[in-house]
Structure formats: C-alpha cells, structure tokens
Amino acid sequence: MDAVLNTKDNTITIKQELTYINNSSDTLQEILLNDWANSFSDKTTPLGERFSEDFLKRFHFAKDDELGSTTIQSISASSGESMLWERYEGIADIIKISLSTPLYPENQTIINLSYQVKIPDEKFTRYGFYKNGDIILKHWYLVPAVYDKKWQIYSHKNLDDFYAPPVDYQINLTLPITYELTSEFDQSELSSPDKTRKIIRIEGASRNEVNLYLEQENSFYNFKMNGLTLVSNIEDNELMPAMKNVASLRIINFLKDRLGPYPFNKILVSEQDYKSNPVYGLNQLPDIVRPFPDGFQYEIKQLKSITESYLEKTLLINPRYDAWIKDAIHIHLMMAYTDKYYPNMKVIGSLSDIIGIRWFHAADIDFNDQYFLGYKNMARLFLDQPLTQPQDELVKFNQNIANAYKAGIGFKYLEDYLEDDNILADAIRDYYNQNVLKLTNSKKFETILKNGTNKDINWFFDEFVQSSDDIDFTFKSVKKRKDSLEVTIKNKGNNNMPISLSTFRNKALISKTWIKDINGTKKIKIPNDEIDKLVLDYDQLIPEINRRNNYKNLKGLFNKPIQFRFLQDIEDPTRTQIFYIPEFEFNVYDGITIGSKFYNKTFIRRNLSYKVTPSYGFLSKRLIGSASIQYRHKIADYDLFQMRYSFSGSTFSYAPDLLFRRFSPGIDFIWRPEDLRSNESRRLSVRNISVFRDRDLENPVSTPDYSVFNARYRYSDFNLKNVTSYLVDYQLNKNFGKLSTTINYRKLFLNNRQINLRFFAGAFLYNNTEKDGDFFSFALDRPTDYLFDFSYLGRSEDEGLVSQQIILAEGGFKSKLDTPFSNQWLTTFNANTNIWNWIYAYGDVGLVKNKGVSPKFVYDSGIRLSLVADYFELFFPVMSSNGFEMNQPNYNEKIRFIITLSPQTLIGLFTREWY
C-alpha cells in the first residue's frame, strides 16, 4: 500500500496492490474483502443498527464530518483491466470482486485498488481521530476475508472480532512530519520530496491486522526483554519505570512458559485496547480510592492486555463464531497468574482489612472469584447464553464480560475434575504451539485435551460449552446405615455434569469424591467414619447457580447459621443471610418516614426474595410500612420462559390522619423471543388488590373498602430509534367492570426528528359507582389511583405543588380541564415532537363521555421540556379547552411535572444497554 494521510479532512488516500494466493482446495470465482471503514458511513449500516440496539446516541446524532467511509475509485487486474465489484448483498462493509477467470488452488491473482478512507471520530469506538489531532487507525483498509470452505464474512458491530487471514504487509505511509508513528511492525523512514511530510515504511509477515497510532507527542514506552520488545502506553503514575519493567517481564515470561514463545519481535498494547476490554471491578475506580497495592493495578491491566494481544495476533480463530476457546485460555491464564503471584488478593483489595467492611462476606471473596460472580449474575437474571453462541447474538454483558468469565471458570471446573493441573496446562501449551499463526478452531483443542486424559470429558464440550442449562446440585436425603451413609444427590439441572462430594469430621476434610451420571437423582454409599458434615463442591470451583444448598450437617438442627448483616452483601452460601438497612421516604401525609428494611436480596438476584420495611411517619405519628415476597420460576429458555409468584402488603397515609392498607397476591407470565438481544417482551399479570381505608368522619365515602381483580397484558419492543408498546387492562369489581387499552409509539428519524404518539381508549362494561363520585372513573389528566400503583407525592391533593405532579396514565392530558373524569368511556390521542434537542411541542385531543351527557371534545397543547425522558419532565400549557392558558391567572399552578424518585427505575436508564 501507498497511503497518504491528510489530517485536515482526516482522510487516507490509498493505492493498494493485493496479491491473493488461493490456499484452499476450491476454485474461486470471486474474492470478498472486508471494508470495515465503511461501517461508519451512515446510521443504517449494521454498525449503526448495533449502536441503536445498545442505546448509544452519539452515533445517531453525529455530524457528517464525524462519520467515516470508504470511497472506491477503481479496482483493476494486474493487466489494467477494470474488475466488476459490488457491495456484497448490499452490505455496507463487505465488497465482492468478480474474477474474470477462475482462480484455481495454489494459483494467485493480483488486484489493484485505489480508494479513499474517511477516518471516523474516536468517540464511537475509541479508534479514529481525536480532537487534539491524534489518530488511531484500526480496520482502516481493505483486506481479504477468510476463505475456509466458504467465505467467513460478517459486518463490523463494535465487537472487536475482526477476522482476516495471515497477510504479508508492506505499507508506505505518508504523514505530516510532526506526527510520531507507533506500531508493532518493523518501521523505517524513506526519503520524502516534501520537507513538511515524511514517509514511513511498515513491514510485517503473517499478520492478521494493522493498527497504527499517530500522535504528535508520543505516549508509548518500550521495554526490551529477551529478544522481545513490549510497546505500551498503559500508565500508572505511582509506579517507577523499573518496577513497570519488572512487572512486564514477569508477565511475558509467564506467558512464554504457559503458552510458548511469541513469534514476533514486538508486542503492542494500548490504553485504548484495554479500555475497550478492561478488567471490570474496583480496579476501575479513580486512583485516589483504588484499594489495591502499588503495582497491582498496573500489572493486572498489562496482564489483561498483553495476554489478549498474545492470543489475538497468533491464534487465528474465528472470533465471532468460535470465541470461547480463546476466552477460556485468556481468563484461565489470568486466574493462574493471580493465583501464583497474588494468592491472597481480595476482590475489594485493602478494603477487606478495614474495620466494619471486613465483617462483610465481600471481604472474604478472592480476586479470582469475580469471574464466577460475573457469570452468576447473568445466570440468575435468566440471561445466560451458550459459549458457542455467535458474538453478535449475545447480550452485551455476556459479550463483554460474562461469557469470557464462564469459559475461564469452566476451565477451572474441568481442571478440578481432571485431578491433575498439568493435563489442562499441557493441552493449552500444545494447542498453542501446534496452531500458532494458523487458521484453527476449538475442535483441535478438544482433540488434544482428550488425547491427554483417560477421563470422559464429553460433558464439558457437549453440555457446558454448548448449552446454557443451569448447574445446580443438592442433597435430597442422607440416611445412616450401620457402617455407611446412603447419600442421595439431586441434579436440579437438565444436564449430565459431574459434582464433587467432600466429607468432614470436626471441620477436617476426610475425603473428596467425584460423582458422575446424575440423571435426576443418584444414590451412593460412603463409609461412615463419624462424618458430621457433607459438602458438594467444597472448593467452589464448579459454576453452580446456587451454592446455598450444597451443605448437609449430620449433627445439629440447622444446616447453616443465621447471620444478620447491616447493608447488602455478596451471597455467602455457608450462611442464611438477613440484611437490614435504614430507609427514608416522604409523602405529604406521613412526612419524612424512617424505618428499617429487612431483606434477603444480595448483589446478585435470588429466585426467592423478600423484604419487610416497618417505618414511622413523623408527621402522621403512625407506624406504617410494607412487606413483599416474590418467587421467580424459569420454565424455558424462550417463549413462555418465566413465571413470577408474588404477594405484597403495605400501609401508608392517603390523606391527613387516614391510613390505607393494601394487599395483593399475583402471578406473572412472561414471554421473550429466542433472540435475547431483542427488547421485545410480553407479560400477562393477574392479581387481586384488596384495599382497606380508614373512615373519614368529616368526608365519608360510600366504599372505603374494596377489592379489584385485575388482568393486564403488556407488549413492548424498543431501542434507541423505535419504541412500540401496548397494554390491555381488565378490571372487575362487584360495582364495576372496566376494559381499556393504551398504545405507545416513538420514532427517531434519520434527521434526528422525534415523534411520540399515544392512544388511550377505556370503557366501563358496567358501572354502579355513582355513590363514590369519580373515585373509580377514568381520568383525563390525573388518575385517582385506587389500585395504589403510582408513586404520587400527594395522591389526595387538589392544590399546591404536589397536585401538579402528573403520571402519564389513562387520558394523558397535561392541562386541568372542566371535565377531568369519565364514568362511561374515554378516548384520547397524545402526540409530541421535538423542536430543538430536549424541547418538544405537545398536543392532546380526546372525547370524554359521562352518563346522560353527550361526548365532550377536549384538547390541550404546550411545550414539554424532556430533561430526562419519562423520568424528569416539565409541561408548560399554551392552548387548551380552557383557552389561551399563558394569559390566565396563576399560570405557575398550571405547570405540570413528571418526577421519578425510585433509584431502581433510574438505574434502568444506565443498565438497559448491558442487559
């Protein structure tokens, strides 16, 4: 390649000669090229769609000069004849070149290409041009796809899974003389006729990728070690260069011992690469609060980055469809390194020594336990996916974190089962040395490992790797015989994986036995040498979804002691944990409430959860609070996949000196599609709400106590650009029956214009509630919330600031009109669109029908400030059925607001791109 960089418009003009050798046994009629630079060309490319799915707004709202592209000027054969080419099947980042004559095995052809690449802004992927003028080039040129019986092609989706064959490169890059070029290739400077520019020759053989770092001030440093040069800009300002050198040398020697020698003379790791795939945890905190000893932070970052580069540049495995084997080796090596050099390191570092914190179970968790916790988080959320699932089909948390962790801890499980640490280590070393710089796959590793052991390990490759079935073993029964114990072990999962059984006497380990072929239940007999405790997976190396049921005490009343803990903690399988925490809330009737929440929820979700929150209201001077219990039952991987059983009760004030008590049992049926990345969901909720209210002697109501049967069906499908949802709600009471539907649609157009549409229609099937006024009626702007579902700051207030709170339910109007309720039927249509950024114009129209009165047409309109969409918004009425509202008295009382104080709801804004 002859490539000329223009830093004024961030383009590279390229003339490229590609010599393609057909190393396959097939005759080729076409050659396919990866053109991932063109993935940034517009919002409709596979990359643009991926950003939308992940709720990443910066690409959709980017300016044209921030995008990237490839402009092809010519593609010709060595004879100079133009060659036919096209975007393969219309895909933006794959090019198909048709060959005029077939390319037979072992033959070669030369293709000349002339094109210009527009470099994208780095804010999308951390690679591209920076505002300070620096440029990092990745996926910036045309390169052949891998041909392995078929063309292995797929689009750029910001997954860091580029796949190219080993290529010999010679690149002459012309760039401004003020720039420094860093790469892991051999570099030399050629003479240039232009004194303001220089030409750098870049050469390397059998490389699968060319990443270039162009900086005006070089941030990289070099360490030479045993013939290999480490090039890095990963920094730790507290560490002396000599200590960095020692740490880096130790990592390189460890990898050389565990894998084999690195085949090139330079290895490059960058801060950008690390940030794209970091070690998640407390080590990401700012230096001032980072609880790790000097050097560890730097060393763990270098370990992650060097190991990844070591494997990525030498093991040519299809990273989209066979990534698990490289992930398993990567995480296994990191765990082995930490075990060797930092065996006592805790996941919270030095915080585990602080009085108060060290009482938590989190203080006992080893640094390597974070890999199991990352995987278990997804398993408990019912989002676990097979290791063989293609990378672009994984939930983001799985793709970035959990599946690599699952692969690594799977190797620890396998290593424990083999009962000889050398077997797996030798297989990894043999696999690396036999396949370095070759196209390879996980099947070759499987063959090597099976040849190294006499144990049956089909379960690992056939079940652990290829399925997402939960691993969960427990004791069904233990019976004492004369000189033995008859132990029945139950496999609660749908698999045939082994489990270890350990026996104890007076806290001393007596034996450890591996048990296989547990289909449902299995009985075994073990000697009864005064055994007083049995433990499944005592070393906690098996990635079980539930370790709390792995203990069986043969003496005493309880399997596990009860433990009270202040604040939430990591789950301790050896204890029955109950957490408590102060809780503060506010409403205008109880005032500030203070209480204590007792609950069993750990940082990773449990299937059975409960909480009890007794509180005291300082204004009402009453004991109030709530309690709930919920059980989640997974019944399938998709379609109708989960059922939730729940019961809740609460008592709070609903008016001055008046309490309500609410009790609600319920069951939810939840559906999801087979594609777990899809945000499509369906839920049928069936519940009964019973409400008991204190009588108000000064303002008596006819029905202070009531019970409502409620069935709701919800459908939703959303991403950054499109939101579609609807709700069908059916309510039944002895005095009324209601049926309603709500349909929402939100569209973000390519020109960044957004429109939000909402339709509501509700009707009484029968209504005998006249004696209760409009308490059970449909509301135009502010539902009475007789089911007590909404978080009103003051649900009974008709004036004052809290009465201006609006919850977009039922009619969805923002203005307070003369006909705010309907006791027969109500139909409304709400719409808004953005004027500029977060400023919207809104309008609502509707028909309100009350008994004995003709339908009344109503409308309102105004300005909406969407500061945080659906969570904090302000509405300023302009025109409505009341007239021109801005000229009317007390306009400040007409302004409405949406506010969400629930931390869990707000957290969803930040976690939605991960799950």
Structural description of this entry:
- The chain has 915 residues and is of the alpha+beta class.
- The strands form ten sheets. The chain has an 18-stranded mixed β-sheet that branches. A seven-stranded mixed β-sheet has the order 4-7-2-1-13-16-15, with no helix packed on it.
- Strand 38 (705-718) and strand 39 (722-733) form a beta hairpin.
- It is globular and about 95 Å long.
Helix content: 10-25%
What can be said about the biggest beta sheet? 18 strands, mixed
Distance between the termini: 42 Å
What is the count of helical runs? 12
Low-confidence stretches: none
Q: What quaternary form is this?
A: single chain
Task: Tell me the β content.
Answer: 35-45%
If you average the pLDDT, what whole number results?
Answer: 93
Bulk shape: globular
Number of strands: 49
**Rg over alpha carbons:** 32 Å
Structural class call reads alpha+beta
InterPro entries: Peptidase_M4/M1_CTD_sf
Protein name: Metalloprotease
Which SSEs are present, and which pair or pack?
Blueprint: E1 2-6, E2 11-21, E3 28-34, H1 46-53, H2 57-60, E4 69-77, E5 85-87, E6 94-103, E7 108-118, E8 128-129, E9 135-137, E10 143-144, E11 146-147, E12 151-152, E13 167-176, E14 180-182, E15 186-190, E16 197-207, E17 212-215, E18 221-225, E19 228-232, H3 241-258, E20 266-269, H4 271-276, H5 296-312, E21 315-317, H6 324-341, H7 369-380, H8 396-418, H9 421-435, E22 438-440, H10 442-451, H11 458-464, E23 473-480, E24 484-491, E25 499-505, E26 508-515, E27 521-527, E28 533-536, E29 551-553, E30 562-566, E31 576-587, E32 591-599, E33 608-617, E34 622-634, E35 639-655, E36 658-672, E37 681-693, E38 705-718, E39 722-733, E40 736-748, E41 754-767, E42 778-779, E43 821-822, E44 825-836, E45 839-849, E46 856-868, E47 872-880, E48 883-884, E49 896-899, H12 903-911
Parallel strand pairs: 1-13, 19-20, 21-22, 30-31
Antiparallel strand pairs: 1-2, 2-7, 3-6, 3-10, 4-7, 5-6, 8-9, 9-17, 11-12, 13-16, 14-17, 15-16, 18-19, 23-24, 24-27, 25-26, 25-28, 28-29, 31-32, 32-33, 33-34, 34-35, 35-36, 36-37, 37-38, 38-39, 39-40, 40-41, 41-44, 42-43, 44-45, 45-46, 46-47, 47-48, 47-49
Helix pairs in contact: 3-5, 5-6, 6-8, 7-8, 9-10
